[in-house]
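In this section we walk through a basic example: taking a raw amino acid sequence and producing a predicted 3D structure, encoded as discrete structure tokens. The instruction is simple. Fold the sequence below.
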Amino acid sequence: MLELIAINNPPNVGWPNPKPLNKWIQKLNLLTFNIMVKSPLRVRNFITNYTRYVHDIENYGLSEHWPGSAQEIEHILDNKMDDCDGVAILSASILYSLSYINTGLALGYYGTDPEGSKTVGANHAYTLDLTYIEDPRIIECTGNDTIDVLPLLSDSHAYNTLMVATVDNVYVSGYWKEKYINEEKLVLQNISINNDHSITAV
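The resulting token sequence is shown next.
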């Protein structure tokens, strides 16, 4: 089960121009690319089949680079390549542009070390289908395969989600939730799950 707490004044993340995680999600002009997919699963399969994983140093000449504007995100489609944060921002932005409101851009620790979220922190970016927030589905776009069903987060033990952003809010989970509560660096809010399964801060 994914437990989230909404935060006010979220920290800036990403590079080279850090900003709150939700500000990385952009409205795209999908007609330019004739994108016809309409569901999270089809968006995932489109991206994995259309793009390939390339490290930022090879793609941008920088050790880390997040696409910070709609034009930069659309450039991923032109180049047909990026790394995990690039394709996660791309998938979240495509779904947002399709008015799919239950999309979450996620940062987390990916690996098998039980202390990884504390010792390593976030080493992976991905997207979540938050239709059922208690157990969201992972929209992992770094592969080159086609799948029939998005995997449940609860069945994917290598994913330890630390931060999730919808367009309107940023949430923390797991170790980062404990950290922010203990350090009292941020004003915390509870969240409410609406009848349509969307998330709001209360």
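Looking at the output, two observations stand out. Confidence is low (pLDDT under 50) at residues 197-202. The two ends are 20 Å apart (CA to CA). In the next section we compare this with other chains.
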